[in-house]
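Contributing: when you submit paired examples, paste them exactly as shown. First protein:
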Amino acid sequence: MQPGAFYTVPMANDGLTRRQLGGLAAGAALLGPLQLRAQGGDAVLDIAEWSYYWYGVEKTLMARGTAVNGRQIYVEHWIPRQVRHPYPVVLVHGGNRQASDWMTTPDGRRGWVSLLLEQGYKVYIVDRPGQGRVPYHPWLHGNYAAQAPTFEAAAREVASSQWPGTGDAASPEVAQFVAASCQAMPRNAVTQATWTSRGVMLLEDIGPAIFVTHGDGAAFAYGTAGARPELVKGIVAVSQPANTQPAGLRVPVLAFVTPAGHGAYPHLEKNNREVLRPILEWMSATAEAGVLAKVADGIDPARNVESTGFKLASQGHFWVGVQRKTMPYGTIPMGQMFVQYIKPAEKKHPLPIVMVHGGGGQGCHMMGIGRRPGWVHFFVQAGYDVYWVDRPSYGRSTYHPDALGPSHLPIVPAYEGLIIANNVFNTAQWPGPGGMDDPMIGQFMANERGNISDEALHSSLVWPGGAELLDKIGPSIVFGHAFGGFFGWGVADRRPDLVRGIVCMEINSNPFVGQFRWGLTAAPMTYDPPVNDPAEFRLVDVTPPPDMPRPVVSPYRMQAEPARKWKNLIGKKVAWVTSEYGAGGSPVAQVAFLKQVGLDTTMLRLRDFGIHGNGNLMLMEKNNHEVYRVVQDWLDQNVPENRRL
């Protein structure tokens, strides 16, 4: 085989028979693909390392201060315990898509991430700049498209006999597909240079790799290969646009063209396992030709202080809260909320954990930082099923002004204000050195999008999606951090029997302050006696005594007695976790409010457990596992049905 050759794999019409590779096997592979399991025979995924990293984080000076310039890429990695192949696989989405396409099919089956892990490949999935987990900022990436993605266009795009479900615009599978649609950066020389440079950064870190791309994701791989051909051992380009491959490319390429009856998204279709077979064979016969791959331990001892591995029954994602909004040009999705999940092979606790990020961030807050383990790791390692979300317009739950209006326009967060705050990066437990050039702060800022402005509208989208999530997974424990704390109240109000406990970590604001006109929420709760307008609350001012120990920030307002109760949450168990700084308002005020409206609330002050030096980002600080154990102990003592199976 000559480097740079261009091949098409013919597929049988039924998509099920072994593909004929013809002359592709010019060199005998020393390690072929394992037998693919039949659909439904999912293997346990023994993962040595799972985490994420932002490559290409750069700063730019704006009027509001120093911000990340938007050219970073997000890379999530999955390293199996036993690595059976010499090169990792890097999966790159195309078009207006994101890396979630590789994780799970629209009808909930395993995606190519899991199928490649079954084969013993190291797997890296990429979100390109401005797409998926990389926040899209119009000031940095260009104006939003004039029209949002539509259900009708999505149905036409995925049409094939192998698409799961009916394939019509009203089907749930098409809803799952269109919910993942993103805003794409304009295609130009700057965009291509950004893709190329970030691809090079990734491969310089992980070593030589094989790219598997979809659509114009091939341009990302071709640019990287042109710059550093020795690091690209092969490119599989699925459904690439015409005239994409540059002339003179010095790496082997498999242009994967599906036959009539199959669509442009074979990795999402019903026979995605069978479609992967010729790709595995080509990688083994060509990209890995002549390279002996010994079965090796996938653990890299230099990466982590603590384990980021686990044995999994499954991992994947889905979308909840997908509403339909009619526009002159079609029906668009609104309010979709991304849910990622990991289920351990050995489940030890009956109740799953639902985790909700705070502020202007996204679900990465739950996943650690800088390849260090986060609370998702700790809960999964303890035997919990774990679900964590990107709230609407955050992270993978992408924003378009036609869907959510200008009130959700993102604000590019600035370094300066957070760097000087004493409860964010200036803590004894922050894992980096601090300051403008702290790489850990760069990893955090790359994740940030900025807060929404209309909190009532946001609540009206989040709460129905959260209720749908619990309807799907059953009784759960809800964990909310900072601004994400409002999630638990509204979801429990709608599904009181499905929320068995709530953990709050320094949730935002004092009662009845700013947009929190309904107490601790911006949107109405079910009160007893009923409240039809916030003006009906009778409030009194409370001034803490001067000798009150921290954390207390300011005077606060409470209901005058007799106080109205949260009718559907009376007696609900709540843990309110706070560091020495008490960020987000006065913990004393919030706990007093929750008790007054009828919840069984306990304040967990870390200092009372001998834990010091933390701030509001205790989820990702150096002693985050120690903080986690405080919460785990509270759950064991206060939610009896959640005790070990």
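Second protein:
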Amino acid sequence: MSTSQQTDPLIGRLVDGRYRVRARIARGGMATVYVATDLRLERRVALKVMHSHLSDDTVFQSRFIQEARAAARLADPNVVNVFDQGQDGEMAYLVMEYLPGITMRELLREQKRLSIPQTITIMDAVLSGLAAAHRAGIVHRDVKPENVLLAEDGRIKIGDFGLARATSANTATGQMLLGTIAYLAPELVTRGTADARSDIYALGIMLYEMLVGEQPYKGEQPMQIAYQHATDSVPRPSARNPGIPEQFDELVMWATERNPDDRPIDARAMLDRLREIEKELAVYPHVVRAPSAGIVAVDDGVESGELTKVMPGTFTAPTVTEQVDNATRLRLRSRRRARAGGWVVALVLVLAAIAGGTGWWFGSGPGSLVGVPDLSGRTLDQATAELATQGLTAIPAQDHSRDVAADLVIRTDPGAGARVDKNSAVTVVVSLGPASHDISALAGQSLDAAKKSLADVYISPAGDPTQVFTDAARDTIVSASITPPGGGPAVDCSKGCSALEGSTVAFEISVGPVPDVSGQTVDSATSTLKAVGLNATATQAYDDTVPDGRVIRIADRDGGGPFRPGDTVTLVVSKGPELIGIPSDIVGMTIRDAVSALEKLGFQVNAGIEDGSLPLGFKYWDIYKVRATNPKAGGSAPKGSTVTLTPSL
């Protein structure tokens, strides 16, 4: 056992009182896989354990548990079985079927491209497994060669449903675009949505790679590859490998149509067409043998290219042809060399140990992991460039933020400081700024109700509300103005408006009407107003109806608007009716002229005979003159009062 195996604290541990950990098989960005013994059923299993630094992350935990539930729902011979899922203290784990063998990625590395019989055998099995998933309403979302397992006993299975989702939840946000970019469907790149047809696209790319020996799109940056998926059509495989039958050209082109509606509706439809091709070509799936080995694959949605490791021992990729393959020839050659002498074997073992240790260190050990930098406050271009220096790929996503300005990075997933495999994808969440909300009319609402509704959209009071005297009920909002975050002109929201989260609102609320003090004495009115927080001063004015010394009214507020507590109001106090002077030259005027002059001044006029007992007829008004007045001419009398004229010839 290597030093790294010995230092792994889980080696030899009994997990959950049932699973004895024997050795580590593989390590990915989210979990490590061990071979373990199920003591209860006495069988060998693969134990997938979530990394301890992710155990407190509810998002990763939910993805981890989702893998167990998704795979457990699929009782299909071409899907890796999940036996159990549990929690031992802070350690979350899955118990999976143990499959000694290799992944299709390793087979492609060894053979470059696959033969038609090999391709048919593997695609038939993978499509069968995915058909069961699609029939159960599950989208895999991460179909790629690393997740196709070729067992040494000839079985072919698809595994790693860690990104799987129900088909009804088909929106893929930035967190969910963790599949390998080389296999991402155009709709995942452009719209972030996925369904069973997105798995079909990935299968089409994988089929192209099996037939040609390389992926259809290349680029220096992963985003260049993603752009080609969204804008270009996958070329015919026969353009690179003329020996490919036309039926496979058509199958690849059908599966990789940019428009999802033009692809097979699900894996069952594609499998039906593949089996028609098998009949047309008279080539059928078969697996005849596989040499001894002991590995299992793990991929947590973080592309590393080196997630599959080998247990101690010798293995060769299983073959699906009946001819002597490259792997068999390599084994025979190795045996002849082994007979050359024990010293050669010893040397090879030493070199293998060194190479294995170096490979582990840089492949899945500490040397393969890089830290996600803190990108908070960067622009997307800056974040993309900084991740590229670490060998990581940025996948942009957006979210609203009240704290981070628009177009700057809010966070990443995985978060800053997390250790991930090189070439992993990191979701960079860029701020859209605060979210906007439509606010209903605030005037007329109670203060408590308005505060509660605004708090739900993260709008807070700017301070204590301004109180004003109005006819509205106490604590009713009279007006409200909202200031956007960071300052700027306030918006009147009394009748409703649109406002950003993080804004502040200034309220003006009613404390009820100003008390009516008309008719009261100055002292009484002053006392009444003081009780509601108003001061009083007085001024006088004539009034024909309000008695002298009584309050006529309250004058308007200086500057206009309603009164506020603490203001000083002006009481307009009556001086009684206004006194009007009686002209002295009234004496000697004709009765008609005197009556006209006095009425213009606002008096009532009574014209009598000499002794005043009877009124003077109108026909004599131009003959008789005023001899005296009561009140006396030259004096004064209240406006509207009656002046009596005493006539004489």
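If you have annotations for the second protein, write them as plain sentences, like these:
Confidence is low (pLDDT under 50) at residues 163-179, 288-345, 360-366, 610-614.
The CA atoms of residues 275 and 302 lie 33 Å apart.
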